[in-house]
């Protein structure tokens, strides 16, 4: 793919995202989502591998179905209320259809099955875009319409996402699939608290993006696609692997790292809302995710696989490090001491 094509697609992604997050009209929000979908498909299928083509097809079909549902939902609402404003969602059937559409877009359970498969068929850079930038427009729509949506349905989908995201990531050996299930689980946490504190959802989303970008950039630098590759990368780039281990532990939500902040605040907010049982359940479910994060961290720093061949191991090289990695890694590890300042600004 030529640099000019990549630039055009990147600008299209930026344009689509900007249109959606700044629009107050349903049709312009839908148009922004469509621009995003059409811009990301060539990036998914750029390798021309059958798996990449399959991933692009799955992505197109699911996103087209979600966009059609969203357009039908907004049209039905406009028909009954005469309003095209995103925040004026008053028709109950339209609310249900919109919830399903956003859940498909985000990859929330039970509409999550496409997401791990698409990530597995994409390159690490495209998987990074799918896990972060492509989540921003539907998350914005969810935030704008959260007061109109059915809280019981959102709660159920959020709990299912937290459970399935942790449970289905346990047996994976592909790093992209592990991070896909991690994304599903984190989105469950964000959706759970959106009914009570939308600002907290936004904070959790920003911190999730920070940590995920750091992990994907590090894995892209070492070209890590499987756990077996991760096991041998310590000898090549020990410093990079150390930061990867710490960022994974941060994404797992271990104190005193940044990832502990959103989970701590969400549990605190649920306790304030007299939902201590829910807070306890999601804390227990997060242990499932902690297991596969620890497994990734363990593989990246401690273990080397048995090797009886005479082939020489790859040792440390002078490969230049992407400047974006330290820029994203430092805040994804060290923001917890600044939490009082962050809380006063949200």
TrEMBL record:
This protein's GO CC annotations: mitochondrial inner membrane
The record's similarity note reads: Belongs to the complex I subunit 2 family.
Q: Ranges for the NADH dehydrogenase subunit 2 C-terminal domain?
A: 290-343
Keywords on this record? Electron transport, Membrane, Mitochondrion, Mitochondrion inner membrane, NAD, Respiratory chain, Signal, Translocase, Transmembrane, Transmembrane helix, Transport, Ubiquinone
The signal peptide here is 1-24
Q: Where would you find this protein in the cell?
A: Mitochondrion inner membrane
Fetch the PANTHER family from UniProt: NADH-UBIQUINONE OXIDOREDUCTASE CHAIN 2 (PTHR46552:SF1)
Domain NADH:quinone oxidoreductase/Mrp antiporter transmembrane spans what residues?
A: 23-288
Q: What role does this protein play?
A: Core subunit of the mitochondrial membrane respiratory chain NADH dehydrogenase (Complex I) which catalyzes electron transfer from NADH through the respiratory chain, using ubiquinone as an electron acceptor. Essential for the catalytic activity and assembly of complex I.
Enzyme class comes to translocase
**Membrane-crossing residue ranges in chain numbering:** 55-74, 95-115, 152-171, 178-196, 202-219, 240-261, 281-300, 321-343
Q: Which GO terms describe its molecular function?
A: NADH dehydrogenase (ubiquinone) activity
Give the catalytic activity. Answer: a ubiquinone + NADH + 5 H(+)(in) = a ubiquinol + NAD(+) + 4 H(+)(out)
Origin organism is: Cacatua goffiniana (Tanimbar cockatoo)
Q: Which InterPro entries match?
A: Complex_I_Subunit_2 (IPR050175), NADH_DH_su2_C (IPR010933), NADH_UbQ_OxRdtase_chain2 (IPR003917), ND/Mrp_TM (IPR001750)
Q: Chief subcellular site? A: mitochondrion
Q: Does the keyword Mitochondrion apply?
A: yes
Biological process per Gene Ontology, one example term: mitochondrial electron transport, NADH to ubiquinone
Query: What protein does this entry describe?
Result: NADH-ubiquinone oxidoreductase chain 2
> Which EC number applies?
7.1.1.2
In what way does this protein cross or attach to the membrane?
Multi-pass membrane protein
């Amino acid at each position: 793919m030529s640099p000019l094509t990549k630039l055009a697609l990147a600008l299209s992604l930026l344009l689509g995202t900007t249109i959606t997050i700044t629009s107050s009209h349903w049709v312009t929000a839908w148009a922004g989502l469509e621009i995003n979908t059409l811009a990301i498909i060539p990036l998914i299928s750029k390798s021309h591998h059958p798996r990449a083509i399959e991933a692009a097809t799955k992505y197109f079909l699911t996103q087209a179905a979600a966009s059609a549902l969203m357009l039908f939902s907004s049209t039905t609402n406009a028909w009954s209320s005469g309003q095209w404003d995103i925040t004026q969602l008053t028709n109950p059937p339209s609310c249900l259809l919109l919830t399903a559409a956003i859940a498909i877009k985000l990859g929330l359970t039970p509409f999550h099955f496409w997401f791990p498969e698409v990530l597995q068929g994409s390159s690490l850079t495209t998987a990074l875009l799918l896990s972060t930038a492509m989540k921003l427009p539907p998350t914005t729509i969810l935030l704008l319409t959260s007061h109109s949506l059915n809280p019981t349905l959102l709660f159920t989908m959020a709990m299912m996402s937290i459970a399935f995201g942790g449970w289905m990531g346990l047996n994976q050996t592909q790093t992209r699939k592990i991070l896909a299930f991690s994304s599903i689980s984190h989105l469950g946490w964000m959706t759970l608290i959106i009914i009570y504190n939308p600002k907290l959802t936004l904070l959790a989303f920003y911190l999730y993006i920070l940590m995920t970008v750091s992990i994907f950039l590090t894995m892209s630098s070492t070209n890590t696609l499987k756990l077996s590759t991760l096991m041998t990368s310590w000898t090549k780039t020990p410093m990079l692997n150390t930061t990867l281990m710490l960022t994974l532990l941060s994404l797992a939500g271990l104190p005193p790292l940044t990832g502990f902040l959103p989970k701590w605040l969400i549990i605190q907010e649920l306790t304030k809302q007299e939902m201590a049982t829910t807070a306890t359940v999601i804390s227990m479910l997060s242990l499932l995710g902690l297991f596969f994060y620890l497994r990734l961290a363990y593989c990246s720093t401690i273990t080397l696989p048995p090797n009886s061949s005479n082939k020489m191991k790859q040792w440390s090289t002078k490969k230049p490090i992407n400047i974006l990695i330290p820029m994203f890694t430092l805040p994804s590890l060290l923001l917890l001491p600044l939490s009082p300042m962050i809380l006063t600004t949200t």
